[in-house]
Amino acid sequence: MALLRSYVSGRWHTPGVDGTPLLDAVTGDEVARISSDGVDMRAALEHGRRIGGPALRELTFHQRAALLKVLATYLTEHKAELYALSARTGATQRDSLVDIDGGIGVLFTYSSKGRRELPNAKVLAEGPVERLSREGTFVGRHIAAPLHGVAVQINAFNFPVWGPLEKFAPAFLAGVPSLIKPASQTAYVTARLVELMLASGALPEGSLQLVSGSAGDLLDHLTPQDLVGFTGSAGTARKLRGHPVVIANSVRFTAEADSLNCSILGPDATDGTPEFDLFVKQLVAEMTVKAGQKCTAIRRAFVPSGLLDAVTDAVTARLAKIAIGNPANPDVRMGALASLDQREEVRRSVRALTDAGTLVYGNLDRVDTVDADSERGAFLSPLLVRANDPGRAEPHEVEAFGPVSTLLPYDGVDEVVALAARGQGSLVGSIVTGDVDFATAVTLGVAPWHGRLLVLDTDNAKESTGHGSPLPALIHGGPGRAGGGEEMGGIRGVLHHLQRTAIQASPRVLAAITGEWVPGAPRAEGDVHPFRKSLAELRVGDSVTAGPRTVTQADIDHFSEFTGDTFYAHTNPEAAAANEFFGGIVAHGYLIVSFAAGLFVSPEPGPVLANYGLENLRFTTPVFPGDELTVTLTAKQIIPRENAEYGEVRWDADVTKQDGTSAARYDVLTLVAKS
After folding, report:
1. pTM (2 decimals)?
2. Which range marks the domain in which residue 553 is found?
3. Which of 295, 399, 486, 487 is catalytic?
C-alpha cells in the first residue's frame, strides 16, 4: 500500500519506514500508510521563510488574488478525484459537497474580496491619516505588512479539503506561505489536494508545504514571525497553546475547537408552525451530515418545556427515515464515522451523556446498514438523548463528536440564556423563532458566548445556508471552549497574517511609504491636466487647481427649483437666519460638489473613462451667496486592475472658499485607461 508523501523544502519526501495504516471508513480496507519519518521540520519552516515568503511578498494583493482564482478554477476541474477519495472517509455526496466545493468556494471568495477590498499594492494603508502636529508636518498612519514567517496549520480529520483551504486562502492573500499538517485519519484526501494545488502552477515555490504524519518537533522551530492555526479538540488546543516556544515567542495562535453548540426553539414555534418544522429539520441535518462530525454541529437542542414531547416525536420520526451505509449507494443519507477509534470515542461520550439523560432514539451498539458491514466499517446510529435535568453538568461539558444531540427543556428567556452559557463558549448557535422580541432578547443574552449566531425564520429559510455552515465572509471561531479564535471573516482573516505598524513621519515620507498621497505631501501641477494622463503616465500627487467660481443667490434658487430640494436653509431667509449653524441662506452641499466638478473636469474624451462614486464626503463650512469656490484635485491613489485595460484612481478633492477655509472635502473615484 502506498506511503503518503510530504512536500517540504521544494521536493516530495517519502518516509523510510512502513508507517501507520489508514483504513477505509466504510469497508475497513487499508487505503494508505502515513509517517513523517525523515522530515526536517526546521528546514521546512526555513524554506517557507526564505523562499516562499519573499516570492509572495513580491506580488501585490491583487496579483495574489488572481492566483487564487487560477487555483480555484483548476481544483474545480479536478474535484472528481477528491470526491472519490472523500467517499472512503465515510462521506456521502452531500458531505463531500460541503467539504470540497465549500473549500474551493473559499478560494473564489478570497480572490474576489482581494480584488475588491484591498489595494493593488504590497502593503495595506489602514485607517485615516492622523495629524500629530499643529502645522501638519508630523503625521501618522497605520500600515499592515505581511509577516516574514510561515502559517502553520494543524487540521482536524473531518474536513480534509475545506479545513486546509479556509486557512490557506487568507494567508496566501496576505503574502504568507503555508505549511499544512492534516489529521492522519483522512490525510490521503489532503495529500491529493496538495498535489493538485502544486500541479496547478499557480503557487510560487515555498508558498505551500505539506507534512503527512506526526508534527514531531515542528513547534520547536517557530519564530515570532510564524503563526499557528489549529482545528481540533479543546484539550489539544490548550496543550499546543501552552507549548514553551509558542509562549516564549508570542507566536500568533488561533484555535478553532470543538464546542457544545446549541439551537434554541422559540416558545412561539409550536407544533405545526413553519419554525417548528425548520428546527426539527435543521437538528436532524446537523446530526447526520458528515455523520455529525462537524465542529459546528448542534450538540444541545433547547426546547420550551411544553414542546419537548412534540419535538422528541418529530425528530425521532425524521431520524427513522435516514438510511445509513455505503455512501456509494444513492439511497444512503448518512455514511460512516472517520474511523473505528472515533466510533469508540463517541460511544464513551454517549454513555456519559446517558448517565444524566435517556436515549430516546438509536442503538449505541448496533445499526442497520445499506451495502456495508456495520462492524467492519465505522458505522453508528444517530443517537438522540433527552436530558432528565437540564441543569446537570454532562450535557454542557461532554461532547460526543458524532451523530449525537441532546434535547434540553427550558422555561423562559433568562433560563435558556443561562443554560446556553453553560457550554463555556461555542462556535455557533441558532435561534429558531418568528418572534422578533424573543430573538432579540436571546441574541443579546448569548452573543458573548458565541462566535456566530443564526436567527432562522420563514423569512430567510429558503436562502439560509444553515446552522453548521461557516461562510468565508464571516468569522469562524468562538470564545472560551471554542478556542478564542477567529478564522476567515473576510479581510479580517487576511489582517491576522499582517503586522500592523504605526508610522510617524512627514507627509512626504508617509506618502512614499504607503503609495497614497496625504495632505501636506508635495503636489505636482504641470501643463498637462491630470485627466489627460493615462494610468501609465499618471503619478500620485499629480494635481490641478481650478476656480474661483462665485456662488450666487440665483444659483441657489435655480438648484432648489431644478432638483426639488427646497430645504428651508436654502429657500427661507427667516428660518435659515434662526439656524445657529448657518445664520442665513446657504448653498446646497450637492451644488458645491456639482460646481467643483465643473471646475476640475477636463471634458474631452480621453483616458478617464468614468466617474463611479464619491467617498468620505464632508461639508465643513457653510457656503453663502457671494462666496467664491476653488477646488484642488490631487491623484491620491492609483490602483491598476489585473487583467484589465483600465484601473482605478482615487482623487482628493478639496473645495475652499476665498478665505482659504475648506467648504467640502471628499474622494472622487474614477476609472482610467492604462494607456
Report:
1. 0.91
2. 523-673
3. 295
295 is an active site residue: yes
H helical segments located in 27-161: 41-47, 53-57, 61-77, 79-87, 93-96, 102-117
The rounded radius of gyration (Å) of the Cα atoms in the chain is 30
**Closest-CA residue to 467 (of 277, 199, 325, 282):** 282
Per-residue pLDDT at 662: 95
Nearest CA to 287 out of 275, 276, 298 is that of 298
Task: Assess whether the previous peptide bond of 548 is cis (omega < 30° from 0).
Answer: yes
310, 320, 327 from 270: Cα distances, Å: 9, 22, 35
One-letter identity of residue 508: R
The per-residue pLDDT for range 170-184, each reduced to its tens digit, is 999 999 999 999 999
C-alpha torsion sign, points 649, 650, 655, 660: negative
C-alpha cell of residue 505: 513621519
The pLDDT of 419-440, averaged and rounded, is 95
One domain for residues 186 and 275: no
250 and 266, same structural domain?
no
Regarding whether 279 and 134 lie in a shared domain, the answer is: no
Instruction: Flag whether 508 is in a domain.
Output: no
- Same domain (yes/no): 54, 129: yes
Residue 503 is assigned to a structural domain of this protein? no
Encode pLDDT of 312-364 as tens digits. Answer: 999 999 999 999 999 999 999 999 998 999 999 999 999 999 988 999 999 99
Do 439 and 537 share a domain, yes or no?
no
Mean pLDDT of 470-479: 92
Segment 135-160 shows an average pLDDT of: 95
**Amino acid code (one letter) for 673:** A
Number of structural domains in the chain:
3
Is 256 one of the annotated active-site residues of the chain? yes
